[in-house]
Design goal:
The protein contains 8 helices and 7 strands, in the order αββαβαααβαβββαα. By secondary structure, the protein is an alpha+beta fold. The longest helix is centred in the middle third of the chain and has 18 residues.
């Protein structure tokens, strides 16, 4: 919440800093959300954070922030085969943001998640490969210069783990188009719902079936899949007859 205050109130002015005591940004959705942070091991600074907003029965049909921008029938018409009536299998990805300390290293301070249209995702694989046992790490004095995509993937790993703990099946999100493009390069493909909207900047309402996301990552970037799912321990791939899982290393 301190990082969110810095990003949402100080850096971007999305929220009124005077509304929050103790320099901690929060809202009513925090009362029924699960949260994750990423800390930088070199100095224990909080580098990034995200949350999953979970539904509550007593909310009278309004469960997620995205519902202010899409109609239920619009969503149902797009995904008729999803179990949309099981609201407790859904969650909304929210407050997906990276510390300005890390974004400034790459001139990405204009983006909450530290993304741009010019990130070459394929350059940022050595730490992922090391985590999955595929290769020796590349030693470089300026290794921080490859960190932002790993923060994004680290947040996705946290989202997978929280989703497994909460027995979720689907995600909603209001995401920056640049973040969606970056995620797509890793095989993380969200389904757009309608047109872009104004919500803390330009955002695309979207949704995803978590099994589809996991499969998409495995098909496009097996190294990333091994990292975000711990080689299937956190989120196993959906069973398919023609699917062969190659173990790490």
């Amino acid at each position: 919440m301190q990082l969110r205050f810095q990003v949402y109130c100080i850096e971007n002015g999305f929220e009124d800093r005077c509304q929050f005591e103790g320099e901690r940004e929060f809202d009513s959705y925090d009362l029924h959300s699960v949260h994750s942070i990423i800390r930088y091991a070199n100095n224990d600074h909080t580098a990034a954070t995200t949350r999953l907003i979970l539904p509550r029965k007593e909310q009278n049909g309004i469960y997620f922030p995205i519902q202010a921008y899409i109609e239920n029938d619009q969503f149902q018409s797009m995904v008729p085969d999803w179990d949309v009536d099981d609201i407790h299998s859904f969650a909304e990805i929210s407050r997906f943001c990276v510390s300005k300390e890390f974004k400034n290293r790459f001139s990405e301070s204009n983006s909450l998640a530290g993304t741009s249209d010019y990130v070459d995702a394929n350059r940022h694989t050595d730490q992922l490969n090391q985590a999955s046992g595929e290769s020796e790490p590349v030693v470089e004095s300026k290794c921080d210069a490859r960190m932002l995509p790993h923060l994004t993937i680290g947040l996705m790993a946290a989202i997978f783990e929280m989703s497994a703990e909460e027995n979720l099946k689907y995600w909603f999100a209001l995401m920056e188009p640049s973040l969606l493009r970056l995620l797509g390069r890793f095989g993380i493909e969200f389904m757009p719902i309608g047109e872009v909207v104004e919500h803390h900047g330009v955002r695309q309402p979207c949704c995803a079936r978590i099994d589809d996301i996991a499969l998409g990552i495995w098909q496009k970037r097996p190294d990333v899949w091994r990292f975000v799912t711990r080689n299937g321990e956190v989120w196993p791939l959906p069973e398919q007859e023609d699917l062969k899982i190659v173990s790490a290393g």
